[in-house]
Amino acid sequence: MIVLLPAALVGGGVSFAVLWPYGALAAFLGAQLGATFLALTAGMLLALLGAKTEPKQSAAFRLSRIVTRT
Predict the structure, then answer these.
(1) What's the per-residue H, E or C state across the chain?
(2) Total-model pTM
(3) Which end of the chain has fewer beta carbons closer than 10 Å to its terminal beta carbon, N or C?
(4) What is the mean pLDDT of each run of 10 residues along the chain (70 residues)?
């Protein structure tokens, strides 16, 4: 989740820079939209990558499985 803040900052900065030729008001308003969009994209990417990994098992759980097998 710590990735979302830098993603929002980068998205806002890039949107601000791209929209600056259209005026300061457009740049400030567009920066919020760019930050939100990039943070949403990063969040969805994290959710997809997190869904593909297996949950980690604790050492106690693994030990209990070994003990019950014998």
Answers:
(1) CCCHHHHHHHHHHHHHHHHHHHCHHHHHHHHHHHHHHHHHHHHHHHHHHHHHCCCCCCHHHHHHHHHHHC
(2) 0.66
(3) C
(4) 89 95 95 94 88 66 71
